[in-house]
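Chapter summary example.
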Amino acid sequence: MSNNLRQIAKDLRSFVKRCKDVHYSDSLLIAFLVTGLLTFAPRLNADAATEQQEVSAATYDAITDLRQSFIRARKENEQSLKGAERELAQLLQQGDQVIKSPWASFQFGTGYTNNDWGTTYRGRGGKFLEYYRRDNDLTKYVFDPSKHLYGATN
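The structure predicted for these 154 residues follows.
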């Protein structure tokens, strides 16, 4: 078999797979070669052309549906954002009324609030900062001869 004949047989097999009523055999290949491509060519081209048109129409419809759904979703989002902006403006105008009231706190009415387990809250300023300062006096390193014990330098 030459390469052309093998290619024709391969193409015929792929065509027969699409047809439900026809089964491939060598006699079908010979009949196809004898009758020629002219009997099947118009039907093949017509099927492919109509199939391509159907697929392109289906994809066009799907794309237009997606575009319309995107437009619809964008409009809904814009409307919900406008509503949220209005609600935010109202909340900002109300101010302190939207903050949690002290009545809901368990520490209301006790007179103090805890900031640590052992102490009470001292109010503004909190705890005082304490810094440790070293002595700059060098007299503590001077040797005292009256002391004959360990640590005579103070």
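To summarize the output: The radius of gyration is 47 Å.
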